[in-house]
Amino acid sequence: MRVLGIETSCDECAVAVYDSDRGLLAHQLYSQIMLHAAYGGVVPELAARDHVRKLLPLITAALQESQMEKDQLDAVTYTAGPGLIGALLVGAAVARSFAFARGIPALGIHHLEGHLLAPMLEPEPPKYPFIALLVSGGHTLLASVRSLGHYEILGSTLDDAAGEAFDKTAKVLGLGYPGGPALAKLAEVGHSDRYKFPKPMLDRPGLDFSFSGLKTAVVLAARNAELNDATKADIACCFQDAVVETLATKCARALNSCAATTLVVAGGVGANRRLRTRLLELGKQRGVQVCYPRPEFCTDNAAMIAYAGCQRLLLGEKDDLAIRATARWPISNLQPPSSDKFE
Length: 343
Ligand code: KG4
Ligand code: ZN
Description:
Blueprint: E1 2-7, E2 12-19, E3 23-31, H1 33-37, H2 44-66, E4 75-81, H3 85-102, E5 106-110, H4 111-117, E6 130-135, E7 140-147, E8 150-156, H5 162-172, H6 180-187, H7 212-223, H8 229-258, E9 262-266, H9 273-286, E10 289-291, H10 295-298, H11 303-314
Zinc ion (ZN) is lined by residues 111, 115, 136, 300.
């Protein structure tokens, strides 16, 4: 089955072609970072308008890359939520119309399901069941994944998402938007023993996260010091260590609670080198296989949407002709594949 995937939930416009026999044949992405940088964050209306400009040329480019004609596609899948409603609507309307025009099915996909399944695109994909740590700009959660669509949420963030904490800390340090990757780079030259930042929620049982106390500690440290390059690097390093240690400890607890032998890490913060190294160490100590998507599939992309959609379609899922876009859509509401209506 050959599937065109479309992702427009936030500030990345992306299109991919996935073939269930041959794997990923194309992936194209246009990042709007430059467009939003001047505002220090994503401006939803500008994001939607830019998707209107970029999506059709990206579809053409993805088809060319896959050396495929439109009429060789069997289905179209698109991110139906959660995300920015205007941005989602662009992808959903284009996907649904494209499929209608060609007389093929279209299927709306949950963005976080895409992230959870992104490691399946790698040469050594994880096997079900597994524990998944999803750390993105909008979400932080631990889930027990039994099979496609069977996701039990073990813990989630009570306030900021991990990526949001990276971005806000980067802003305090004057690193621009989105600051996660810049902060991670700066952390490499910092000293990890200068600040003792709180490691959120480690003193409490359970698998929930909270990053607001850590954020306050960073703001205070930045305010009370001369913010020169060395201090910025030290704050970045100690902040990153606190986040990574917290995430690693919660992953260890989740593995204990479920006796799982595979840990999957996904979402934008999954691209963080320090986190990847730390969790690989944890896996080695416990004999647990740790799986990541390649860094470009940690952050938003359409390959994960094409893959997730293809798996659901192969299991018989169908949808009607509705254009589906849902800004708020808890992943716990997601159902396993079914041939009934989508929601
Ligand atoms: O998954 P994603 O592309 O978008 C959402 O669905 O939210 O994640 C983006 C987030 C941003 O907060 C960004 O700063 C963060 O992932 N991020 C990183 C790194 N690369 C991206 N955070 C820490 N270290 C990185 N290397
Ligand atoms: Zn995402």
